[in-house]
């Protein structure tokens, strides 16, 4: 985000309503600070919003993976009939993505479970063995994946780093895992969420959140592109050929996304929005739909579906230099299409346009009537604005500075 790039960005700021930014918690002294190494806790905020939409009472959408959010996760796990441990792993992530889209299962159908009890002191360290870590890694394998090598590992304060080698589609690749001890077993967790939370001990944080194949010059302020790496792993497991798990949202990964969208019978635009994201998460755990079922689509000819842009809009209510409409109507339509089950927009909010990107800060009401400002990042797909996975795209680079500051660095 150099000075030359900032000068090149022309933006339009249209104030429609009051917008409140999210906040993040300061990290404990024993943990690496979250500030400066994440995409504004985008993953945690999305998790909290999903839980609230389902009546699980995660509280404020504040980007903090605290007691209220963990208890809300446990409540959802109870409703979903899966292990109730408050750990956001592969099973919980997949079920939650589907539930947020359909409205079921939800927490209104079951009583909240009692608060969790902490694992016995030193039990995690006692379980820090290759066999135990390998068991946890094996349990996190996606459909069509096998483990070729268990890989190095390290444990500290109930969390563990592991770098196994997995095989899918006939190719073996090393992956980075972050595991949490739940009192009984190690469970692989959503690395993007936990790296954002400021709760990972420094020795583990350095290996799971700050080391990878991303270029710090083009991907500043990220937690090792965890969201993009997860997406690439899911696509490879489904035979979509995203290539190396390198955390780069480049042409090959975009082509793999379009291939999956063809298989899933959703809009084929190479943009990972809520519809594609939830379908991909679900498919990676059950194996279908997958890219072996359909031919790969022809390369995209739309400028809105590949690459970033540093251009902007010169007039509020007009169009950006890429031709994307910078209007309240078009932005509101995208925000409406992104609502979880039971949500509604009560204030359309401010928005900032830049090239093929928009930030929007609407206020939503969940099924219980609680109103909360949310932080949305949208991308023009050649036809309409689409709300995208903010964590993945904030990590990937290519977002104009004025939009990036609002969508990715507001806390």
Brief write-up:
With 411 residues, the chain is an alpha+beta fold. It has helices spanning 3-8, 42-53, 67-80, 90-102, 123-126, 130-139, 191-196, 202-208, 226-237, 251-264, 274-286, 328-337, 390-396, 401-408; strands at residues 12-14, 146-149, 153-156, 159-162, 165-168, 171-174, 177-181, 186-188, 344-347, 351-354, 357-360, 363-365, 371-373, 376-380, 385-387.
Word description of this protein:
This protein has 411 residues and is an alpha+beta fold. It has a domain at 3-25 and 304-408. The protein has helices at residues 3-8, 42-53, 67-80, 90-102, 123-126, 130-139, 191-196, 202-208, 226-237, 251-264, 274-286, 328-337, 390-396, 401-408, and strands at 12-14, 146-149, 153-156, 159-162, 165-168, 171-174, 177-181, 186-188, 344-347, 351-354, 357-360, 363-365, 371-373, 376-380, 385-387. The strands form 4 sheets. The protein has a 5-stranded antiparallel sheet with strand order 1-10-11-14-15, with helices on both faces. A 4-stranded antiparallel sheet has the order 3-4-7-8, sandwiched between helices. Helix 4 crosses helix 11, helix 9 packs across helix 11 (274-286) and helix 9 (226-237) crosses helix 13. The protein is globular, with a radius of gyration of 20 Å.
